[in-house]
């Protein structure tokens, strides 16, 4: 059966730009992040400007842009800088937060070392808690997958998501429709302040990961 012409297809070709927030106070203070509500450092604010410039260079002018963000301060601050560049209003969503690290959040990293319970090498890793009171991978997957379902229901060709380093794994996994049962060993690694570009091709509707953790735009922020 012949495919319909591209202009007759009901859903737009879509590109997602997934931003991991830049340097925050818990990074420089040596504290465990998670849901600890740290803010961007001055260097982080400058990096957010570089992120917004890089996104503006990639996204055509006069096109609709959706902007979604975790509601924690460090991501919301990053999203605010991007929102001002694109003249849009960010949608703040707690489901896009980092994994909660329970009793270690906001504590010195020595607390993590003391409380950390290594996951099993095999078997059920999705319900394991690395730290007492922390979220499981399964709970993080469920909330981020649900948020991503709602993002992708929107008919918008360019969408920006601001999230956290570990949460990025679940955003990318949801994009490529990876079954959550497969997430026990999966990690997509990206540095702070990076941009991951996801694209749905216009012919086969394949879910592409075009660039993972691109941080070239931060060279200017570091130099300035």
State the main characteristics.
alpha/beta, 224 residues, 6 strands, 15% strand
Would you give an account of this structure?
The protein is an alpha/beta fold. The chain has a single domain, classed as 3-Layer(aba) Sandwich (Rossmann fold), CATH 3.40.50.1240. Helices cover 33% and strands 15% of the residues. It contains seven helices and six strands. It has helices at 25-29, 42-58, 73-86, 109-115, 137-153, 167-175, 218-223; strands spanning 15-20, 65-69, 91-92, 158-163, 195-200, 207-214. Strands 3-2-4-1-5-6 form a six-stranded mixed sheet, sandwiched between helices. Strand 5 (195-200) and strand 6 form a beta hairpin. Helix 2 crosses helix 3 (73-86) and helix 5 (137-153) packs across helix 6 (167-175). The protein is globular.
Summarize it.
The chain has 224 residues and is α/β, with parallel strands linked by helices. It has seven helices and six strands; from the N terminus they run βααβαβααβαββα.
Derived from helix and strand composition plus strand pairing, the structural class reads alpha/beta
For the biggest sheet, the summary is: 6 strands, mixed
Q: Under CATH, the topology is which?
A: Rossmann fold
Query: Which strand order do you get reading across the main beta sheet?
Result: 3-2-4-1-5-6
Number of helices: 7
Q: Radius of gyration over alpha carbons? A: 18 Å
Helix content: 25-40%
Order of helices and strands: EHHEHEHHEHEEH
Rounded to the nearest angstrom, the distance between the terminal CA atoms is 56 Å
CATH architecture: 3-Layer(aba) Sandwich
CATH class: Alpha Beta
What portion of the residues fall into strands of 2 or more residues? 5-15%
Low-confidence stretches: none
């Amino acid at each position: 059966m012949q495919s319909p012409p591209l202009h007759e297809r009901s859903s737009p070709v879509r590109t997602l730009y997934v931003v991991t927030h830049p340097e925050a106070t818990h990074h420089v203070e040596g504290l465990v992040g998670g849901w600890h509500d740290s803010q961007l450092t001055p260097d982080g604010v400058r990096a957010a400007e570089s992120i917004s410039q890089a996104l503006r260079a990639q996204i055509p002018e006069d096109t609709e842009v959706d902007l979604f963000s975790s509601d924690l301060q460090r991501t919301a601050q990053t999203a605010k800088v991007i929102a001002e560049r694109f003249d849009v209003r960010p949608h703040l969503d707690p489901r896009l937060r980092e994994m909660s690290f329970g009793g270690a959040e906001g504590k010195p990293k020595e607390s993590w070392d003391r409380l950390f319970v290594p996951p099993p090498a095999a078997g059920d890793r999705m319900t394991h808690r690395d730290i007492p009171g922390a979220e499981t991978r399964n709970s993080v997957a469920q909330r981020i997958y649900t948020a991503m379902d709602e993002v992708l229901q929107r008919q918008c060709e360019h969408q920006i998501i601001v999230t956290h380093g570990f949460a990025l794994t679940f955003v990318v996994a949801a994009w490529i429709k990876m079954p959550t049962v497969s997430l026990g060993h999966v990690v997509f690694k990206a540095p702070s302040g990076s941009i991951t570009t996801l694209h749905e091709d216009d012919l086969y509707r394949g879910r592409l990961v075009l660039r993972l953790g691109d941080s070239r735009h931060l060279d200017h922020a570091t130099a300035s």
